[in-house]
């Protein structure tokens, strides 16, 4: 079996060594290839034709997926097996949006607990919306307890929806300083969102905001404004959250996959229960595709295979996410955590060093803004950066001309990355402008575009809760496939621990008059300089 896997990798590598392996333009006329690389999953149309996946390469990658048992691993996840081996946990975010009775974690009925919590959340939303006492909801959380719900609320909130949502994540007091001025404690509901309820930044902010509630309302009343979203029910009680205002979830929900759980309550409160339910339903639709589509039609798998080709075979170590929709402004940030915290791994499940690069750096901004900041590098930089371009066919505003411009720009970026611009074209353009031969010769190299730069276009009809749920779940499943292909645990995050521990040691050393402990000379000197600058 291991030999089969290595042979499959070798076959892909052999194709990658073929001259012109990264070329895309020569492949574009192949209609049969286009049919294989243009896929619909639910409402998402994915066009992977602007990549250098030839039919042969795709076959070799699919053979690799077969050897690696990606779809069998998917089924093990769905069965609730403890596939997060370093933490001994199942991985069941699909249960959060699945039907009753569908998922088990060991002998536990995962779906029953999910639906009980959803019922409680729905009843809570109905009460809050019915009372009309609260106008604002503040979600205090960080990482997965912030990025997913914040991204979704920003994408889905429309004028007239029940409440305004605010997201307090950074321990930087400026964040709360800026937020609190617009808020009235009497009209504000505060959600403390933390899977562990121990995250230092979240707890520091939770104390600040609880003090603000108590100062404005008195201690007895403040409790009624506090809600906790957590797996740590002991700690939520100790913090003073009334029992009926605690919404739990289980440890088989990873933080970066938790926006579908109680962690999503801010979305339901701000946008309404129907919107949150539609988000879950959208994700479920993508789950159904992922769980049932054969490998060659399975969109998350195909996107993962394209990533393997780019990262491991062509040596493209980054990827850009470019949503052409302002409302998806936090989508790249959410994907950064989903992808980089999952796939930033350097050892296999068995603890051995990986033999190929794993997770790429993911970054992004909405288009068209991205075009005026970093797209230069994608067009003319030294290393290609594959781009995911998300297009929304229909806007929710009436400014049709703006929307045509937006769509045209998204299409144009993908087209420009693909086709590039050769010397003949550039020279002719400069000659037509009447430039002399010396000026043309001097400028020509600067104005060439190499082309053959990959992109994947994802097209959805509208941006609504259903399509957003599908999009996010698509990337979650892509991450799963990559974890299986690279044989790494995509569901732990030990790499975040050391910095947390060291910060814990440093906090008391930054108190006035405190002496630094044992550090490297750079850190020791910086501590001393901070004390000096703070007059301590
Ligand atoms: O530090 C990383 C992390 O553990 C993420 O995985 C998680 O989403 C985030 O911190 C917040 O954790 P919690 O929800 O437990 O506060």
UniProtKB/TrEMBL annotation:
<dbReference type="InterPro" id="IPR023096">
    <property type="entry name" value="G6P_Isomerase_C"/>
</dbReference>
<keyword id="KW-0312">Gluconeogenesis</keyword>
<keyword id="KW-0324">Glycolysis</keyword>
<comment type="pathway">
    <text>Carbohydrate degradation; glycolysis; D-glyceraldehyde 3-phosphate and glycerone phosphate from D-glucose: step 2/4.</text>
</comment>
<keyword id="KW-0963">Cytoplasm</keyword>
<dbReference type="InterPro" id="IPR018189">
    <property type="entry name" value="Phosphoglucose_isomerase_CS"/>
</dbReference>
<feature type="active site" description="Proton donor">
    <location>
        <position position="341"/>
    </location>
</feature>
<comment type="similarity">
    <text>Belongs to the GPI family.</text>
</comment>
<dbReference type="InterPro" id="IPR001672">
    <property type="entry name" value="G6P_Isomerase"/>
</dbReference>
<dbReference type="InterPro" id="IPR035476">
    <property type="entry name" value="SIS_PGI_1"/>
</dbReference>
<dbReference type="Pfam" id="PF00342">
    <property type="entry name" value="PGI"/>
</dbReference>
<feature type="active site">
    <location>
        <position position="372"/>
    </location>
</feature>
<comment type="function">
    <text>Catalyzes the reversible isomerization of glucose-6-phosphate to fructose-6-phosphate.</text>
</comment>
<feature type="active site">
    <location>
        <position position="500"/>
    </location>
</feature>
<keyword id="KW-0413">Isomerase</keyword>
<dbReference type="GO" id="GO:0004347">
    <property type="term" value="F:glucose-6-phosphate isomerase activity"/>
</dbReference>
<dbReference type="InterPro" id="IPR035482">
    <property type="entry name" value="SIS_PGI_2"/>
</dbReference>
<dbReference type="InterPro" id="IPR046348">
    <property type="entry name" value="SIS_dom_sf"/>
</dbReference>
<protein>
    <recommendedName>
        <fullName>Glucose-6-phosphate isomerase</fullName>
        <ecNumber>5.3.1.9</ecNumber>
    </recommendedName>
</protein>
<comment type="pathway">
    <text>Carbohydrate biosynthesis; gluconeogenesis.</text>
</comment>
